[in-house]
Amino acid sequence: MDLKITLFFLICCSCTVYSNGKATIPSFIHLCKQSDPEMNKCILNTVTELKPNLAKGIPEIRLVPLSPFKMEKLSLKSGNNLELELTDVELGNLMSFEIEHFNMDLGTVGVELNMKFPLVEVKGKYKLKGHLLLLDLNGSGHCVINLKDVVLKTKLYGKRTQKAGKEYLDFNKCDVDIQISDADVNFENLFAGNKQLTDQTNGVLNENPQAILTEFQPMISSSFRSVILTVVSNVFNSFPVDELLPK
User: I need a labelling partner for 224 at 20 to 30 A (CA). Which of 162, 165, 180, 183 fits?
Assistant: First the structure.
């Protein structure tokens, strides 16, 4: 395609997101009013209505794609001399979420959000070294970690800020409590590609899912914290609170 035509196309696309240099909320998003005593219920209904759009993201409100949710890096260093680094990370099956509890308090600028997922799939390139279940682990390659029956309880904390004379909600902290019923892993290329040892080691790990979860929980919590904070802060940093939640 000719470069000028390509640039014109990109500019036209940009104009659907911004009007006079200002981000605009798409008309298909139902806005909830601060004065509504059922505001939290309204927000939940809006999220449910938007669920089909969440997989690919909604660029107009800086909502990143959730299917999959991509992260550059996750790292873990445990007290058992276990080091795990994941890069090019993808969290899959997030669209299976169900919201069990939601409460937003505009006075304290806080949000409580409880969710559950039947399955979350973590994929990425790994580097692993250390000890787990008396196994001496060493390897690098591709890995898949399946987390089953995930229950996530989060609390977000924010503050009101001023930008260009308008008030925004800035969410900058997220506490995460996570419970996972079961898990299985597949680390390729352990022990310099020795397939027999790799298969045996993956088998031993999968026979002891709670040991895996105990070691990996800080990293797993960090990944969900990143998802929640990214989604919420991107949206609320893009629009004044009175535009997202009109009075």
Answer: 162
pLDDT, one tens digit per residue, over 204-232 is: 999 999 988 988 999 999 999 999 999 99
Q: Vertex 66, ends 60 and 71: CA angle to 5°? A: 105
Write down all domains in the chain, each with its CATH number in brackets.
3-244 (3.15.10.30)
Alpha-carbon distance of 32 to 29, in angstroms, equals: 10
The position carrying tokens 């397939």 is: 195
Helix (H) or strand (E) holding 6: helix 3-17
Q: Partners of 146 in the beta sheet?
A: 121, 184
Is there a contact between 228 and 174 (Cβ–Cβ < 8 Å)? Answer: yes
In the three-class reduction of DSSP (H, G, I as helix; E, B as strand; rest coil), residue 240 is classed as: coil
CA distances from residue 57 to 70, 217, 233 in whole angstroms, order as listed = 12, 27, 15
Q: How far is CA 32 from CA 94, 127, 245, in A?
A: 25, 45, 5
Sign for the CA dihedral angle at 8, 10, 13, 15 comes to negative
- Determine the distance from the C-alpha atom of residue 214 to the mean position of all C-alpha atoms in its chain, rounded to a whole number: 20
Tokens of 60: 């107009």
Each residue of 60-91: pLDDT tens digit? Answer: 888 889 989 999 999 988 766 889 999 999 99
Asked if the model's pLDDT at residue 24 lies above 80, the reply is: yes
HSE (CB half, 13 Å, CA atoms) of 151? 6
Beta carbons of 163 and 171 less than 8 angstroms apart: no
